[in-house]
Amino acid sequence: MRFVRPFETAAGTLTARHGLIIRVTDASGCVGYGEASPLPGFSDETFVWAACEFEGLDAMPWPEAFAELSSLESISAACLALVKSPSSRHGLELALCDLLAQERGVPLARLFNPDASLEGETARVARRADDALAAVRDGVRTIKLKVGVGALADDLARLAEVRRAVGSAPTIRLDANGAWATDDAIANLERLSAFDIECIEQPVSATNLEGLARVRRTSKIRVAADEAVRSADDLRAVVEREAADIVVLKPMLCGGPIAAWGMARSAAAAGLSVIVTSSLDGAIGRLGAMHIAAAIPAADKLSAGVDTGRWLAGDLFDLTAIEHGRFNLESAPGLGFSLMEGSQ
Is pTM, for the whole model, over 0.90? Predict the structure, then answer.
């Protein structure tokens, strides 16, 4: 899937996404869907690695391999045993959760939280003032800007233009993708704070937790751990060091919807807000992220980051769940993907 234009971050520039659609059929003929799409520059595994992990799984008899998968815990254990990389586990786990939700007759979000609302707000990534203004006019209330790609002066000028264009009401969220050294991050955020910023995602390297904690202690802007939180162990380390106010969870990079849900609950219990985002996934991955975002109680989360399909020049399926800065999920059992599959 190629991008409509290069997607620039401090970690590099992306021009296309490659991924696998995972399709699991149970003994009764029901189908569950998942997606495995490693993100270059952010995932440890490559697309080829993920693809190799699924070799031979299609020949595995359903009754023998999956007959006892009647709970989230059993699905998680099976996926950990069968595939090792986070994106591969995500693909298989999402497909099996889709099947379990269909079996129970509930939308996927309500497999995790029976009170899930099936809707929520989502931020939109903008590059310039005109992008941001178009988003706000479309009803979007949270704008996300990448910073740290070039000089701070360029970021300040661009941010000033965006704030002038959209006014004081919309929320602006920044993402540095670990671009800055600790002292630079502190100095940069002091200047950026003049523009009323919601949070800064990953201002320093993911491995620099002490620096992240120092930035949090000194910054007027709330600090979100993103690349620093890819597992439950990572989250515990961030919490123990009091290194963030917010965590950003990407189910594709965390190892699946069950892993992401568990981390979201742990983060909320520790007093951290949660942002669920896609990792520039295809339609199935984005839809799974929406279900996890919907499952999290409103008091524990900020606007999600799942409106990323607009960066793709083409997708395998038409996903129309997002309009005017909000996502709305189907009330049908499971992921709800089969409804959209039939409307290609």
Answer: yes
